[in-house]
Amino acid sequence: MTVLQQGLERYLSAGQLDRLASVRVGIAGCGGLGSNCAMLLARSGIRRFTLADFDLVDASNLNRQFFFPSDVGQPKVEALGRRLLELDPELDLKLINGRLEAESLPQVYAGCDILVEALDKAEYKAIFCNLFMERDVFLVCASGLGGFGGAPMRSRKLGRNMVCVGDFSTEADEANPPLAPRVMQAAAMQADAVLARILG
Questions:
Q1: Is 122's pLDDT higher than 90?
Q2: Which of 11, 35, 155, 161 is most buried, by the most CB atoms less than 10 A from its CB?
């Protein structure tokens, strides 16, 4: 048993920990949403992940993503995998370092019980959500998390198998840059929706 798992026994029952450990969570994108959501879920007892991203860690990512200066220049999935294994060396990680294409998504996320959409562009988000929202998998997505202050973040249930979090209006752009507080708030809400689905 890892140190993290020993610590979690203070807060969660053996049955709850078993349920958390039995679920595979797939995360599409390992940037501000995906890296932080994965970190929060690992800290909460999730032990099986499928992580996919094509990008490299850049200095401009460090303001809001679960990376550190020594990770710059490395593939995000590999850097994130290494950070997660520091938390729990016994995690089951499936890492896909490559661009996600619509036709390969079902294969990439085969075996996942829950999917977290953590993609940057609206068109990619739409493709991902439209593909999986009618399948027998729980889907958590995000919309609206740019800037600071702004509209309150909230959660919406869309059908029986989908939850969307965010302020649903503020796209991250030059006027509303992606900053740590709101990005991480949205990632935390995504992680919380996953835990509620498993333990609720």
A1: no
A2: 35
